[in-house]
Input
Amino acid sequence: MRSGFEPDRRGFLKPNLPPIHEVLNRSGGPADITKKYKNMKTTILHKFFGFLAIIGLLSCSKDPVDESGLLITGRSQCFMTFFDLLGSDHRTVLVSGQTVIDTTNLTVTAVARYGTYMQRVKPYCSVVTDAIVEPTMGIWTDYSQPQKYTVVSGNRQVRKTYTVTVTVQK
Amino acid sequence: MKTITHSVLPVLGILFLTLGCQTKDPAPDTLKNDLLKKTTGPAVVGDRIEFAYAIGTTEGDLRNVRAEASIPGTTGTGFSRFSWYTNRNTGVDQPVQTAADTVTNGAVSTANIIDQATNKAITLRYFYYPTDEAKGKDVSFRFSGTSSTGKEVSFQSPAYRVSSMDMKRSLALVDGAKAYVSIADMAVYTKAEVEQNNLANKIDFVYIYRATLGAYAFGHALVAPSNPDYLKDVTLPTGLAKPRTAIDKRVDVKDAQLRGTTGFDVYIDDIDLQQATFPNTADYAYGLTADQGAFVKTADGAYAAYIYVNSVNNTTKSMTVSIKRLKLN
Output
């Protein structure tokens, strides 16, 4: 058995490697190396395209949406920020500065101008980012009685029901 | 023989292709005309449709023009004697007389061109005032003109539908006096007139002006007799029925025909009143000011209308309104 190193003719130690022709013979010769190289190249390409395919598949996956087609996000904030009420002429009927949104007690109180016909008004509101309101606002509604609206968070996990009460100046 | 046939046929084909499709250059028209409908709004009885009829000749002189409507118009129908040009210094359109003897007989209107030596090309205005008989029907016009060479040229207009609406302009309402409005009559009455003429069942709304009610502003209002709140202090005509007229206030419907001024291109047409819905609508509109109005539907469902507020006057407690009305059933 040969050791790892042995001195050459000049006395320097050199690695005790087998002659190249033996290596070539053992590996099946130059043709075998070329074949292995090609196999390795093919494997890399296959892996590369496989990786691309996985990325492609992942990129095609749809973001979650609710039944209305609205994006479901990760936000859990859930509150109303603004409320308004329009008359048949599409002008606000609310007295400025009188609307109070209580996000703790989940109430909205507002005052409509004297003479407002409360049986046919159209509510609007703003909510925190990605949240939605149920039922839909923006339709003619009878506000002679308090109305309830539920704010649903962006992740659709948190629901808070607000009671909206509008009184008319008398 | 076959060779000859093969040789002749291509030659004939080429000749047909090159010569067969040639058209002779027609002689240029020396008398031409054209038509422009200037009115953009619907043709409503009580208003007019305006056309600009242009005619010009390069040979001889212009003699006369003629317009024939498929349905005769009412008073005012016919050619104007004037053409218009824009003063380049002021930018203002100014008239210049180019026609005379403007006559309308039945459906036919005519005019003679004056100063024929210089008026080689003119544009005349033609106005058509639809009649009640034309409501809901199509009307079209055939314009024509002649020159001194005996040539005639003509232009057939498309058909235009005359609105089924009625229009009444400038009804003066006064609080406590001329305050009772009938949509069916398109008229306003005093309390005494309602009682004397037995109109108690024809009143659709009452005009009132209250600067304030209680501590709050109220202003000019149209109130249906059914309303229990805003007519408390009004002594209504004896026996006045209490119909609940649907009154839906608007602030942005500035109908150009009801307004009676140019510069606006909003028009209420038949379809607007046909398709207007009044779900859960109020029986009053208050705080009305000029250029605002209200869609109205009578309690019996017979009429839909738009009441346009031309002006209000707080001092005289009065309001001037114009009405477009459509009979629904």
About this structure: Chain B has a mean pLDDT of 92. The helical segments of chain B are 2-20, 191-196, 256-259, 270-274. The first strand of chain B starts at residue 31 and ends at 37. The longest helix of chain B spans residues 2-20.
